[in-house]
């Protein structure tokens, strides 16, 4: 999980910057809208909405924006369809793209265009999904008075598979089926996660030289710029050299 933790750290820093932009709010708004259409507007009985609202809070999305999205979702006839697209970058890095769209043809065309632009290729669905496991991932704030050892024991009892401690946050990973029990335990402990989601975690990673890896990262950034794209997962090994290059 070490490689995943590095990626989570990079995404967290990037997310803190992107939170000032409308794009990340748009992606969370889509998730809120789909959650409301799927299970209603009460987060107490709609776990998907509850998770989306937690993530909205984690990026400081204004309360009025959230309320507007929930209200609109109840009367909007537009349907957002979840689709996943898979492919490879140059160097053989597996790329898994999750989308929410009201126009599947447009989304497929846009994603294919990014693969082509960066020398990759769009593959048939299912051709790389076996390289990933879907896991629950929680990012928790680490406060000065946090008893890390006690918290770890509580979360392990609730089903946590892996807990990684960074300077100011913890990354908790769990099996998909234990996602709800971790949510419940965090509620009991009064801990609000900065982010909680089901993510595609690579079973193994692929290492490239720094120049090649930076090109893959540019490709990933291009996918994330697409309004229809919600999440991008990959199995690129985030070496120390690559992290240093990304930070410079």
Description:
The chain is an alpha+beta fold and 248 residues long. It has three domains: 2-73, Integrase, N-terminal zinc-binding domain (Arc Repressor Mutant, subunit A); 81-130 and 206-236, 2-Layer Sandwich (Alpha-Beta Plaits), CATH 3.30.70.980; 131-202, 2-Layer Sandwich (Alpha-Beta Plaits). It is built from nine helices and eight strands. The strands form two sheets. Strands 3-1-2-8 form a four-stranded antiparallel sheet. A four-stranded antiparallel sheet has the order 5-6-4-7.
CATH superfamily of the largest domain: YebC, transcriptional regulation domain
Low-pLDDT sequence parts: none
Which strand order does the major sheet show? 3-1-2-8
Query: What is the CATH architecture annotation of the largest domain?
Result: 2-Layer Sandwich
Q: How many strands, what sense, and barrel or not for the largest sheet? A: 4 strands, antiparallel
Overall morphology: globular
Reported by name, the CATH topology of the largest domain is Alpha-Beta Plaits
Query: Helix tally?
Result: 9
The pLDDT mean sits at 88
Q: Find the count of extended strands (DSSP E, 2+ residues).
A: 8
